[in-house]
Write the C-alpha cells for this entry.
Amino acid sequence: MTFENLQVNIQDRIATVYIDRPKKLNALNRATIEELHEAFKALRDDNEAAVIILTGTGEKAFVAGADISEFADYSVEQGKDLAAKGQELVFDYIANFPKPVIAAVNGFALGGGLELAMSAHFRIASDNAKLGLPETSLGVIPGYGGTQRLPQLVGKGRAMEMIMTAGMIDAETAKNYGLVNHVTNIEELIPLAEKLAGKILNNSMQAISVAIEAVNDNYKDGVNGFETEIENFGKSFGTDDFKEGTQAFLNKQKANFK
Ligand code: COA
C-alpha cells in the first residue's frame, strides 16, 4: 500500500498506520481523510493484518487537527458535508472496524486528531502528548464525533470543560481521565503498542470482532447492546475458534487460533 500522506507497514500480523505529514503536524487534509479510508478498507480484507496501530510520524504530533487552511472559507453546507463525510469515511469506520485499532498518541492530538484517537478502540500516549479539542477557539465545534465520544470516555463535565476552554491536557491527566490507558516515553510508545497487540493476537480474532460490535452497540441509538451480546455470544458457539479455545483449555494446552 503506497500513499502520499500515510505510511503503512505490516509485520507479524500487526499493521502500523502512520499519518505522515510531519511538516504540517500531520493535520488531516481531505486527501489524508480519503487515504485513511482507503488504507482501512484494504486492511479490513487483508489476512496479514489482524491488529492495527494508528500513530503519527515524528515526535511532535499525532495529528494537530483538521487542516484549518482547507476549510477557512467554507460555507454552511460545505462545513456540514466536511463533518458528515469525515465521520462516515474515517471516524465511524474506524470505531466500527472489525479488527482492534490501538491509537498510539505520540504528541499533539488536537481537534480532529483527538477525535481520530477517540475513534480507535483504545489509546496509549507518550509522556509528551497534549490532547484537546480547540475548535471553539476557532469559532466552530468538534465535527468528527468529538462532542459525542469525549463525554463517553471522560464524562460530561470534563468533556464540557475541555470543549469550552479549548485547552490541552497532558498525558498524565488524560490517563487520570480514562482517555488513554497507558503513558510511556516516546521511544517505548510503539513497542508498548506492539506488546499490547501481541497479547490481543493470542486470542480469537473472531470473538474480538463480535465483542467490538457488542461494546459499540451500547452507544447506538435504538440498538440494545445486551441483545447484540446475547446474539454474538450465541454465534460464537458455532465457530472453529470456540472449539479450539474450549478444547485447548480442557486439554491443558494453549489455544492456537487460525
Ligand atoms: N491545520 C493546518 N496546519 C496546521 C495545523 C492544522 N490544524 N496544525 C499545525 N499546522 C501547521 C502550521 O500552520 C505550521 O505550518 P507552516 O510551517 O507552513 O506555517 C506547521 O503545521 C507547524 O505548526 P506550528 O504552529 O508552527 O507549530 P507550533 O509548535 O508553534 O504549535 C500547535 C503547535 C499544535 C500548538 C499549533 O500548530 C496549533 O495550534 N495548531 C492548530 C491546532 C488546532 O486548532 N486544531 C484543531 C483544528 S479544527
